[in-house]
Amino acid sequence: MADIDILAGEDPDAYARLSVCVDIVLMGVRKGAPCALLLRRGAAPFAGHAALPGGFVGAREALEDAARRVLRDKAGLLDVRCEQLYTFGEVARDPRRRIVTVAWLALLAPAAIEAALEANPELLCATLAVPEGDCSGDSAVLDPTGARLPLAFDHEQILTLALERLRGKLDYTAVGFDLLPPFFTLRQLQDVHEAIRGSALNKPAFRRRMIDKGWITPTGTRETRTSHRPAELYRFRGMT
Amino acid sequence: MADIDILAGEDPDAYARLSVCVDIVLMGVRKGAPCALLLRRGAAPFAGHAALPGGFVGAREALEDAARRVLRDKAGLLDVRCEQLYTFGEVARDPRRRIVTVAWLALLAPAAIEAALEANPELLCATLAVPEGDCSGDSAVLDPTGARLPLAFDHEQILTLALERLRGKLDYTAVGFDLLPPFFTLRQLQDVHEAIRGSALNKPAFRRRMIDKGWITPTGTRETRTSHRPAELYRFRGMT
DNA sequence: TGACTTATATGCGCCTCAAAAATAAGTAAA
DNA sequence: TTTACTTATTTTTGAGGCGCATATAAGTCA
Q1: So what's the pLDDT on residue A238?
Q2: Which nucleotide is nearest to B229 (CA to C1')?
Q3: Cα separation of A52 and A232, whole Å?
């Protein structure tokens, strides 16, 4: 913290106070592709563009509490895994005035996506189209009709970073399970991984890796209503 | 960003403005152990405790620019790799008033450590003692005499996170090279890795791994002034 | 010159893991 | 009832990475 000599005795109000807000990337996997929940802006600047749900941080509110408040008020979600992503503070990122934003990444299971869309009809579920083969380039943000969706402020940069973070953590953390229902087949788990990575995986190898990690346990029950051999349902057990 | 409806038309000053500052973890490896450069606080709160160098973010200053300014003003350093670490915003983290801090991690080669200590004699080089064997526990911060050094605010938490981040990136990024002089032996590189990890590595395997990665090239020159066979000097070539 | 120290190169066995092939369990159609 | 079809699951095989041990090289110092 801080300029020690100065902080000690002088008037706190002599220093700049900035607006601080939180923006939440509500991310999930739907129809085999990563997606994010956005709001369409009505007023300038960036009227008509899509933006991440967000809100100002209160004077007596912790950053994480602000993120949870936005999650609750804008999407009706209470128990969602939410981690800090990055803090964006370019001077001109908002043309009106200086705003520093702390971006958070929330991971949504399919049921949570639908619940949020129902809780707030203003939300739209945008698809993040990963460029085929090349996963370094920026991902295109598409609206439900498949049209390119322009984003407000630096929110496209934030979305890109969110997807990169998710991709990076996929192999050595349990993030994949937050994007699935409590019971799932290995095929569903693989689909989620492939959607985030943007590339295919070898099936037997994926299966063995997942089982050997010890994070999942078979439930003994099987899929129903398939027109082929039903797959075993697994459940996330937790990391050691 | 932001509560769209509200942001659009109302008075910006109706919302909380917070003090925002940057704190820099100046990290390096010295005498086979990770270390960080700290300042001793003179005034309350936490008088006599050590603290990270930091400063307030100006109203028209980007976060990264603020970090570079602190790096320059407090340690005389100009060309240092510096990445954002995490943003801390607990309400009571500073007992005087609400301050949100964006923590940054700067990686220092041995020469940069010495240069900083000379540029600002107030700086002290604290050793981060990784608990033997168990790298999950918090690392103790020791002053040059080996005594435990109490830290101000939540700065111990920030230091611990910095070391964890460094450890996590060690294997798949080039962070190790930022902690070494431009020319180095494989033994020096291994010492840095072992210091960050807090555990020993197998020598031939480490050597093979590093060479196979293709990140380093032999320079053809050798160590001098050794009392044994001199080692080849390598140099970082960059990642592909 | 020979002892000593550390760097460097090589060989071996184990474990991980990707890819392919083989087998199992359902549905749908003949 | 049988056969074709689809997808799940298991087994096999081979390549590569890595830890460990050993052998050799290149300096200093007594």
Answers
A1: 83
A2: D27
A3: 37
Quote the CA–CA distance of A188 and A177 in Å, as a whole number: 10
C23 C1' to A229 CA distance, Å: 13
CB contacts of A51 in chain B (<8 Å) are 1-2, 4
- Has residue B6 got a pLDDT over 70? no
Does an H or E element contain B221, and which? Answer: strand B216-222
Would the pLDDT of B133 be above 60? no
Q: How far A27 CA sits from the closest chain B CA (Å)?
A: 16
* Mean pLDDT of the region B3-21: 60
Q: Across-strand partners of B218? A: B234
pLDDT digits (tens, 9 = 90+) for A92-111: 999 999 999 999 999 999 99
* Cβ contact B229 with chain C strand, < 7 A: yes
Looking up tokens 């350093």, which residue turns up? B77
Whole-number distance in Å between B109 CA and C13 C1'? 39
The predicted structure's pLDDT at residue B83: 98
Summary mean pLDDT of chain B = 91
Whose tokens are 């050691």? That residue is: A240
Which nucleotide across the nucleic acid strands is nearest to A229, CA versus C1'? C26
Phi (first) and psi of residue A53, to 5 degrees: -65, 140
The tens digit of pLDDT for each residue in B175-216 reads 999 999 999 999 999 999 999 999 999 999 999 999 999 999
Pick from B15, B51, B99: CB nearest A4: B51
Which residue is nearest to the C1' sugar atom of D6, using CA? A228
- Whether the full predicted model's pTM is greater than 0.85, yes or no, is yes
Total residues found in chain A within this entry: 240
Low-confidence ranges of chain A (pLDDT < 70): 1-15, 131-138, 240
Are A110 and A180 spatial neighbours (Cβ–Cβ below 8 Å)? yes
Interface of A with B in 43-82 (CB under 8 A): 43-44, 51-52, 54-64
- From chain B, the residues in CB contact with A14 under 8 A are none
Token reading at B30? 């010295």
Q: Which of B60, B125, B46, B26 is nearest to B93 (CA)?
A: B46
Q: What is the rounded distance in angstroms from the CA atom of residue A60 to the CA atom of residue A226?
A: 53
DSSP conformation letters of A90-131: -TTSSSSS-EEEEEEEEE--HHHHHHHHHH-TTEEEEEEEPP
DSSP B148: B
Q: Strand C within 7 Å of which CB atoms in B 164-193?
A: 185-187
